[in-house]
From TrEMBL:
SSD domain ranges (all copies): 247-380, 579-743
Topological relation to the membrane, as annotated: Multi-pass membrane protein
PANTHER family for the chain: MEMBRANE PROTEIN MJ1562-RELATED (PTHR33406), MEMBRANE PROTEIN YDFJ (PTHR33406:SF13)
GO cellular component: plasma membrane
Primary subcellular site in the record, as a coarse category: membrane
Region (Disordered): 116-154
Top-level lineage group: Bacteria
Signal peptide (residue range): none
Transmembrane regions listed in the UniProt entry: 16-36, 230-263, 283-301, 322-348, 354-381, 418-436, 576-595, 607-628, 640-667, 688-708, 720-744
UniProt keyword Transmembrane present: yes
Name listed for the protein in its UniProt record: MMPL family transporter
PROSITE patterns according to UniProt: SSD (PS50156)
Length: 777
């Protein structure tokens, strides 16, 4: 491998325009595809096999008109006024009609040919304060029923004695809630649908003082790129200049990284018309692509400059050797990240698989660009890669090594190794404590910032109608013997009994399928979508041995956005330990092959687990408990995004092994070349620490730039990755690792003879290549 990369690097250096033109062509193709296909992101977090998804799939076949997702718009009267005036009622009625006229919205009047008579009958039969029509239009069969055990502080919005379908108004007349249904689930809506709904409502109330507050489910899916990422790049540029001592040299890693993410992220968007991907997919690829793209190029450029300054090689020869040696480590490091990400495929969750594949492709591109485009650019720069000032400074390098910061730090860590080990274990153990209370879920309007319409709508709905109206549940009831039909009277009593369940606010019958053996009900919990009591209600309804299931000899399926989120969180929490086990086994095998040692893989894996636990502990404290929330730009703590623990673990593993390889392989190189015991730890640390520190600072800066975006999901990912790299690189790799290595000394490299014969020699640092080249001189 190292010999092949050496030849590849020299060829790219000698004929740079062939390689540069090739990559420009690839980028041009991606841009062309992007222009033709456009960009599309989705909120689709579908998880096959969950109870809610099974119910949805069945509904789409049996009763598609009630299988779509629900959304709402809140109308708020101006201060000191009411909404139940003729002018404002007419505006709200027009808003509802405008929304129902859209192709993607279910019109309850079309579901029932005799809807007017049906509505009138329901108003006279049911409690006048019952929110009839607030959830779904009545079915064509005479089964429309809404049950309310108490007199709720709201009722239907009436026009000439007839309720406006889907609209209820608070008893004080200040708040009206319009709830409606799409023809498909919220996760599957086409681009622009939610914007059309909001526009239809705002056009209807234009000219009035009504305040319109769309729910969080109507928030348009945006490509979550902003200007905050630029700050991370600026810090990366400063670190590169300081590390490499040259503006020219510092610019190359940024150029290659931008090339990589341009092709990787652009390519992902170019196929987004054909492959459903969440908004987090391209942003994750951008995060990783920028971080590894800069770091991998940094490792190679730094190695080339060291060969020029320390060994007096020409820029061309140094570039070839840098690609052959550091490039081999880059190839392996990138492969490790790709393996960790692709490990997500075994979980079998489609949106996670797409995220992993797009991120993996971007990392692969970063590796290929570092091994081909970078040496080509180095060929254009030539000998200017090292300035005259840098060459003059290199002459006093040996003197500086004796008293440099890295040497002093390494000696201090080695000397106080026991104290360092105990202190780090105590610090990381303390940081990990909040993990025990980490709650997984999907951020909702309840966790949005106070100045957003989603949060204002959520709070107003909760205050006027009850928090459960923010997350209705869709219930599917079926006889256990599917050949039987539901008698109409049993449906009425079923709705009444569900209404009597703990934590149920309102139960409404939505319809029955043509065969009469499937009934659909809407249930409004008393508690909010992310409340543990709502989860308990869902579980109680699904229980096969529940009183309702046994009394009516039926099975109850629960779906809807709230149930989908509950199932998703449970599923991801269930597979997370399995994924951790896969990562641990991979870590032990890969590091055993690289370092030909038993102790080093175990130490590295334990250090990684400490980093992960501490990372999620801090993430929980900040985003769930709300610590330092004002600093990170959010107002209210909430659940950790369900898929973040899995995706962050995979990424952190790959990046942690990067630092492990570059730092510990340098210690091994020192050991192989005659530095024994603790001296090999200090010498190897000094050789690699500067570039590892720079790489870690760059990664932390890039990830931290995403913390200050407006999207809470991106905030959490950015924070977790930035905190994870900060902990793993500086606390574990740069401090704990040398302390443990010094504790074991030469025994750290011990390997049984039988295992030594079985394991292939990976030669990550290219020792065989260097020996071969030295023999030819």
């Amino acid at each position: 491998m190292s010999t092949f990369l050496y030849k590849l690097g020299k060829k790219a250096y000698h004929k740079p325009w062939y390689f540069i033109a090739g990559w420009i062509v690839v980028l041009s193709i991606v841009i062309t595809m992007l222009g033709i296909n456009g960009m599309r992101v989705s909120s689709d977090l579908r998880i096959e096999g969950t109870e809610s998804q099974k119910v949805l799939d069945k509904l789409e076949q049996e009763l598609p008109e009630v299988s779509g997702g629900q959304a709402s718009v809140l109308f708020k009267a101006p201060e000191g006024e009411r909404l139940d005036t003729p002018e404002l009622i007419a505006a709200i009625r027009k808003a509802a009609d405008n929304v129902y006229s859209l192709d993607d919205v279910v019109n309850p009047n079309e579901l029932a040919p005799e809807s007017g008579a049906m509505q009138e009958k329901q108003v006279t039969q049911n409690d006048p304060n019952s929110p009839d029509g607030a959830l779904h239009g009545p079915d064509s069969s005479d089964t429309g029923t809404t049950v309310s055990a108490e007199m709720p502080p709201y009722g239907p919005l009436m026009v000439n004695g007839t309720p406006v379908p889907g609209v209820i108004i608070s008893s004080d007349g200040r708040i009206a809630l319009f709830q409606f249904q799409f023809t498909v689930q919220l996760l599957s809506l086409s681009t622009g649908v939610t914007e059309s709904v909001v526009d239809a409502v705002e056009n209807a109330v234009n000219g009035t003082d009504i305040i319109v507050l769309p729910s969080d489910s109507l928030k348009a899916q945006e490509v979550p790129f902003g200007t905050n990422e630029i700050y991370g790049l600026l810090i990366a540029a400063i670190v590169l200049v300081i590390t490499l001592g040259s503006v020219v040299a510092a610019g190359l890693p940024i150029v290659t990284a931008l090339f990589g993410v341009g092709i990787g992220v652009g390519g992902a968007f170019a196929i987004s018309k054909f492959v459903t991907m969440t908004s987090a997919t391209p942003i994750l690829a951008l995060m990783i692509g920028l971080a590894v793209g800069i770091d991998y190029a940094l490792f190679i450029v730094n190695r080339q400059r060291r060969l020029i300054l320390e060994q007096g090689l020409s820029a061309r020869e140094a570039a070839g050797r840098a690609v052959g040696t550091a490039g081999s480590a880059v190839f392996f490091a990138g492969l490790t990240v790709i393996v960790a990400l692709c490990g997500l495929l075994v979980i079998g969750i489609s949106f996670l698989s797409i995220m992993a594949l797009v991120a993996s492709a971007t990392v692969l591109l970063s590796v290929l660009i570092a091994l081909t485009l970078l040496p080509a650019l180095l060929g254009l720069v030539g000998e200017r890669i090292c300035s005259r000032k840098s060459r003059e400074k290199s002459r006093s390098l040996a003197a500086k090594e004796k008293g440099g910061i890295a040497i002093r730090w390494a000696k201090g860590v080695v000397k106080l190794r026991w104290l360092v080990i105990v202190a780090i274990l105590a610090i990381l153990g303390t940081a990990a404590i909040p993990v025990a209370e980490m709650g997984l879920g999907i951020p909702s309007g309840a966790t949005a910032n106070y100045d957003t319409s989603a949060r204002q709508s959520y709070d107003a709905i909760s205050e006027s109608f009850g928090e459960g109206f923010n997350g209705p549940l869709l219930i599917v009831a079926e006889p256990r013997d599917l050949s039987e039909k539901f008698p109409p009277e049993s449906l009425n009593s079923l709705a009444q009994d569900i209404q009597k369940m703990d934590n149920v606010s309102v139960a409404s019958l939505a319809g029955v399928n043509k065969n009469g053996n499937m009934a659909i009900l809407s249930v409004i919990p008393k508690t909010g979508p992310t409340d543990p009591e709502t989860k308990n209600l869902v579980e109680n309804m699904r229980a096969a041995d529940s009183t309702i299931a046994q009394t009516y000899d039926i099975s109850l399926g629960v779906t809807g956005f709230t149930a989908i989120n509950i199932d998703m969180s449970d599923k991801l929490a269930e597979v997370f330990p399995v994924y951790i086990l896969v990562i641990v086994i991979l870590s032990l095998i890969i590091l055993l092959l690289v370092f030909r040692s038993i102790l080093v893989p175990i130490k590295a894996t334990v250090g990684f687990l400490l980093s992960v636990l501490a990372t999620f502990g801090l993430t929980t404290a900040v985003f769930q408990w709300g610590w330092l929330s004002s600093l990170f730009g959010f107002d209210t703590g909430g659940p950790i995004m369900s898929f973040i623990p899995i995706i962050v673990t995979g990424i952190l593993y790959g990046l942690a092994m990067d630092y492990q390889v570059f730092l510990v392989s340098s210690m091994r190189e020192s050991y192989v070349h005659g530095h024994k015991g603790r001296q090999s730890v200090i010498h190897g640390y000094n050789q690699a620490s500067r570039v590892v520190v720079a790489a870690a600072i760059i990664m932390v800066s890039v990830f931290a730039g995403f913390i200050f975006t407006h999207d809470i999901m991106i905030k959490q990912i950015g924070f977790a990755l930035a905190a994870g790299i900060l902990i793993d690189a500086f606390v574990v790799r740069m401090t704990l690792v040398p302390a443990v290595m010094a504790l074991f000394g030469d025994k750290a490299w011990g390997l049984p003879n039988w295992l030594d014969r079985l394991l292939p020699n990976m030669d990550i640092e290219g020792d065989k290549l260097i020996a071969k080249l030295d023999a030819q001189e």
